[in-house]
Task: inverse folding
């Protein structure tokens, strides 16, 4: 860019800095605040890819408790996102003059009364030593050893809501939704034989056992109560 000879050197330097600043700003557009649903997407897989909680994602977009989304639908990825929601929007929040409640210490997840018949829980694998583990986020799960290719079965009837590798630390993961209260998760699987949206029965084969982080065959199993991994041993039947 040629500068007029009449400009002083200091003025020309100032103009150059302004131009460089404008170019730098234009080369770094803000991150997208919305996502367009593609065929095969589920709310769980989208939330995992964008590192947000699926319940927050549902709330921001006024989704129902079935978490139903459709190809072409534009979802907000944050509370202030600019996505256009194609489902019914939530009613505006009522204003309140009350001060926010003080934060309380973490307590075990409360179990609301689930709709429908109670779940007849069963072990996802036969035999194998089960060790109760605690994840960094405070949730609990079972590490169950076994043999490569061993059948992994649904711990209860429900519907597959996630299958993939989008959640760090779980390997190939399958999640089954049993009702509005309970989910079960099966980590480090191999040869998954179900897909998202499939209805499964208790004891149905859903995958085979793969290797865990240490390279040995294992299953990492969770039962999530209102979204929080609880102690599976408190729900599973006692092994003989």
Result:
């Amino acid at each position: 860019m040629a500068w007029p000879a009449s400009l002083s050197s200091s003025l020309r330097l100032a103009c150059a800095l302004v131009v460089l600043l404008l170019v730098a700003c234009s080369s770094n557009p803000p991150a997208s605040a919305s996502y367009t649903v593609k065929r095969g997407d589920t709310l769980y897989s989208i939330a995992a890819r964008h590192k947000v909680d699926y319940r927050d994602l549902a709330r921001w977009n006024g989704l129902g408790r079935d978490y139903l989304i459709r190809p072409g639908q534009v979802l907000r990825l944050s509370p202030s996102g600019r996505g256009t929601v194609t489902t019914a929007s939530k009613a505006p929040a009522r204003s309140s003059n009350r001060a926010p409640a003080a934060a309380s210490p973490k307590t075990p997840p409360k179990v609301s009364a689930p709709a429908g018949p109670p779940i007849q829980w069963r072990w996802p694998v036969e035999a194998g030593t089960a060790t109760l583990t605690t994840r960094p986020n405070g949730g609990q799960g079972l590490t169950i050893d076994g043999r490569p290719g061993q059948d992994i079965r649904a711990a209860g009837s429900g519907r597959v809501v996630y299958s993939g590798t989008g959640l760090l630390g779980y390997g190939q993961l399958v999640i089954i939704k049993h009702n509005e209260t309970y989910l079960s998760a099966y980590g480090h699987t191999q040869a998954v034989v179900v897909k998202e949206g499939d209805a499964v029965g208790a004891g149905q084969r859903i995958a085979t056992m793969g290797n865990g982080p240490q390279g040995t065959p294992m299953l990492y199993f969770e039962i999530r109560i209102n979204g929080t991994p609880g102690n599976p041993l408190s729900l599973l039947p006692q092994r003989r």
